[in-house]
Amino acid sequence: MTLRALDILKTADVIACEDTRRTGQLLKHYEIPTSSPQPSPRTKRLISFHDYSGPGRVREIVSLLKEGKNVALVSDGGMPLISDPGFPLVREAVREGIRVEAIPGPTAITTALAASGLPSDPFSFFGFLPAKSTQRKKALTEIASVEHTLVFFESPYRITALLQEMLEILGDREAALCRELTKKFEEIVRGTLSELIPHFGRKKVLGEIVVVVAGKGRKKVFR
């Protein structure tokens, strides 16, 4: 959390959040009072805005902005719009000529890239690959020839399957798996894909994972 982000949360009239309960816990930690649905002069109104929010909620928030309200958009973790909700709202705000201001903060993409030991210039980010294996393999095949360092998000429940498919389609490239970045149980494991598979296959994996994989034809850097 940055000082600038805290200032935004303290001065916003309305906070649109992926999960009002989780954001409420965050605000409580920083002693920012909340009230839902109607705020008092000192409290913040929290409204939900997530992947399943329809056009009606977008129009509601845009209407608040047109009234002169300051609305802060918060996701449960990471950066809004980057594999997180927010694009329909920002798109509509831009169309309406409403000022959109991004408040930089920690992001797992660049944090993992910097810690991976793999080249960071250039890199390509692909977010979450499809959940189904056949579609995931198709996506991997389409990017197999990319020479940039590749960055992905993945669920702990699919990480072993993803690594096996990467080994099959991309070959035994160097990679780094970054789990729970900046948190208490942060873990960064580096090696070839064939070395990483047994590491994560022999234990229960929890938390958020970023996978960083060497691009096609890149020289080995770990040894």
What does this structure look like?
The structure is a single chain. This protein is of the alpha/beta class and about 220 residues long. The chain folds into 2 domains: about 5-95, Tetrapyrrole methylase, N-terminal domain (Cobalt-precorrin-4 Transmethylase, domain 1, 3-Layer(aba) Sandwich), CATH 3.40.1010.10; about 110-215, 2-Layer Sandwich (Methyltransferase, Cobalt-precorrin-4 Transmethylase, Domain 2), CATH 3.30.950.10. Helices cover about 35% and strands about 20% of the residues. The protein has 8 helices and 8 strands, in the order H-E-H-E-H-E-H-H-E-H-E-H-E-E-H-E. It has helices at about 5-10, 20-30, 55-65, 85-95, 110-115, 135-145, 160-170, 195-200; strands at about 15, 45-50, 70-75, 125-130, 150-155, 175-180, 185-190, 210-215. It has a 5-stranded mixed beta sheet with strand order 4-5-8-6-7. Helix 7 (about 160-170) runs antiparallel to helix 8. The longest helix has 12 residues, at about 55-65. It starts with a helix and ends in a 10-residue tail after the last strand.
Cα-atom Rg, whole angstroms? 20 Å
Number of strands: 8
Low-confidence stretches: none
Number of helices: 8
**SS-derived structural category:** alpha/beta
Reported for the largest beta sheet, the result is:
5 strands, mixed
Name of the CATH homologous superfamily of the largest domain: Tetrapyrrole methylase, C-terminal domain
- How much helical structure, as a percent, in the residues? 25-40%
Integer tally of domains = 2
Strand order of the largest sheet: 4-5-8-6-7
What overall geometry do the principal axes of the alpha carbons give? elongated
